[in-house]
Amino acid sequence: MIKKTIKKTHVHAGDIVRVISGNHRGAEGKVLRVIREKNQVLVEGVRMIKKHLRRSQELPKGDIIEKEGPLPISNVKLVEKAAAAASASANKGTKPSKTSKKPKAPKAEKSEKIAKPKKAASSKQEE
After folding, report:
1. Is 2 left (phi over 0), alpha (psi -120 to 50) or beta?
2. Domain segments of the chain as ranges
3. How far is C-alpha 22 from the geometric centre of its chain's CA atoms?
4. What are the pLDDT digits (tens) for 69-113?
5. CA distance 25 to 49
6. For position 118, what pLDDT does the model report?
7. Is there a contact between 51 and 62 (Cβ–Cβ < 8 Å)?
8. In angstroms, rounded to a whole number, what is the distance separating the alpha carbons of residues 85 and 91?
9. Fold of 16-86
């Protein structure tokens, strides 16, 4: 079954969110990344998974690292917006002052409309 991707998400990177359902219910953290294609988010410190790295020249013994796993975006609730996003939305509805407005260019004069000839009635109606 193909899932529909959410066009507009309620959380963005940098927001503080709370997990509202699932095994990690009640946990809070900062959104690291929003994966829109899969309707998922990565929340800092929530759903930590272990990834095993195989041996290589850089890691001769291999390694086990912990990183955040994705959560469904529907399982998180916005607690606090990111500072940059909050300030941008606060200025959204403000109007510019009258002194800062650029003068409008005069509109071009409209030419007179030329009347189009009416279409002749079809021959079937005349019969």
Report:
1. beta
2. 16-86
3. 23
4. 999 999 999 998 887 555 555 556 555 566 666 666 777 776 676
5. 17
6. 76
7. no
8. 10
9. SH3 type barrels. (2.30.30)
- 7 half-sphere exposure, CB direction, 13 A CA radius: 0
* pTM of the predicted structure, to 2 decimals: 0.59
Contacts 24+ apart (CB under 8 A), 90-98: none
- Residue 91 identity (one-letter amino acid): N
Tokens matching residue 80: 């606090």
Q: What single-letter amino acid sits at 87?
A: S
Q: Over the stretch 15-58, which tens digit does the pLDDT of each residue have?
A: 999 999 999 999 999 999 999 999 999 999 999 999 999 999 99
Compute the Cα dihedral for 49, 51, 43, 2 and give only its sign: negative
Q: Between 115 and 68, where is the model more confident?
A: 68
Q: Which residue's entry shows tokens 């994966």?
A: 35
Token pair for 91: 């200025």
